[in-house]
Amino acid sequence: MTTMLEKNERHVDAKFKQLIAKILNEGHLDENPRTVWASDKTSANSIFITQEIITFDTDKGEVPITSLRPIAFKSSNEELLWIYQDQTSDLSVLEARGVNWWENWKMADGTIGQRYGATINRYEMVDKLLQGLKENPFGRRHIMNMWQEKDLSEPGALSPCAYETLWSVRREEGELVLDCTLIQRSSDYLVAGHINALQYHSLQLAFAKHLSYKVGKFTQFIQNVHIYERHLDNAQILLGRQGQQSEPRFYLDVPDGTDFYKIQASDFKLENYEPVKPNLKFELAE
Prior knowledge:
The structure is a single chain. By secondary structure, the chain is an alpha+beta fold. The strands form two sheets. The chain has a six-stranded mixed sheet with strand order 1-2-6-5-4-3, covered by helices on one side. The protein has a two-stranded antiparallel ribbon with strand order 7-8. It is globular and about 50 Å long. It contains eight helices and eight strands, in the order αββααααβαββαβαββ.
């Protein structure tokens, strides 16, 4: 299957379709997968490719969100703040934010174990990163990494997929600019690929506001990009859609210097976003 780009198609939607087509054309079938279908507990096989790098020109106003299907950006940002502000793996805290899609991974204690926000909290990752970016902006060690062997050795429901961010600061026209790279071991691309990209661009916006820096480039590196076999029909539907031609506007509506911990999901604004409907249903693999 190949795809032809529509005239005047947004760059982000074109990238999305190109990667879907690449998975379908060049992908490999996985073997003995860990995942099973939530509905019948049979193996959830996927087709995958490896080592994909997607760069978004966010410093030029490009928004890393597809318009080929609606993306729940409000809920995704609530989840992001649960990890990096609340810094907990307690699902009741996430549910209070209106997000319920982690229920299938809930452990007996109501958490997902020593994972995600609990790891961020244990190692004070956010505070240390923000301090480093402020005191030594041009340093080359601005990293948050949730792949901590001590934590992964403890009971937990799911190892982090989007597990690392790397941050760099540069000076451009006299102003400090914050660039971000997201590293993912795995991406269920049709379901979460653009959710993860928008989430971590949101984190970039929030950190830049906290530091009073400008927002720079955003890059997503994914080691394993896959489409589940039961989602292949949806992949064909997405390839046949044409998204909006104009670029949405995505920004954080708070003053420069706003404390990161005071930023709310409602402060993120997405304007002129007109995704193709109806949305698609994706059977859950867990």
